[in-house]
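Let us work through a complete example step by step.
Step 1: write down the sequence.
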Amino acid sequence: MLDRRCREIDGLTTDMVRLEKRVREIETLLGAMHLRCEVNTHYGDQDSVGDAVRQRALYADLTIIGPLLLGDRDLALSVIDGSLAETGKPLLVVPKGAKATLCPRHVLVGWDWRVEAFRAVREATRLLSRSKEVRVVMSDREAACNGNRDPGADIADYLARHGVRVAVDRMPSVGPSLDAVLARHAADASADMIVMGAHGYRGLRQRIFGGATRWIPEKLPLPLFLAR
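Step 2: predict the structure and record it as tokens.
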């Protein structure tokens, strides 16, 4: 028991030394970029991660998750729970192979008239206004729910009033899954980012971490801007 306890202490000491080294590296990097910043650390059990992230995300405009964190599914889920699900603040997911940017030139917006989709658009409006092209994509099934107005006219008008250059695309709701259609359309449009609402938490987990609709990290390495 004593030997096991000594090994645990040695492991904790090694982790703390590694963490402190990483903090210094990040502070040096941000300092060289002349950014106003604060580097916080949290060392605790898995259950406390979500709350630690929530406390910090409440006072941030955006939470960013990169490929290193996405590689640890349990840890990434705790961060998503703490930032996106519990604060109402947007989240930017940057999978492996994607280029992290807040100035995308071509953006695809997944639209379905749900409040989560509008929140994503609202939170991303400043980002969208700087883009060269924004394409709002909806299924023809969703378009049919819009009554007599042209499909997508409402969200297109909203974005246009904020100086966004926007076009609306209707995609077929039959055949491949909507995720697959959206992924293919993003590739065809040379999109730099996808903006969408984070409704359907189970579906969100599948998109990012696995399942039949796992297309973001593996098939289409693009940053994903989410809001709920």
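Step 3: interpret the result. The mean pLDDT is 82.
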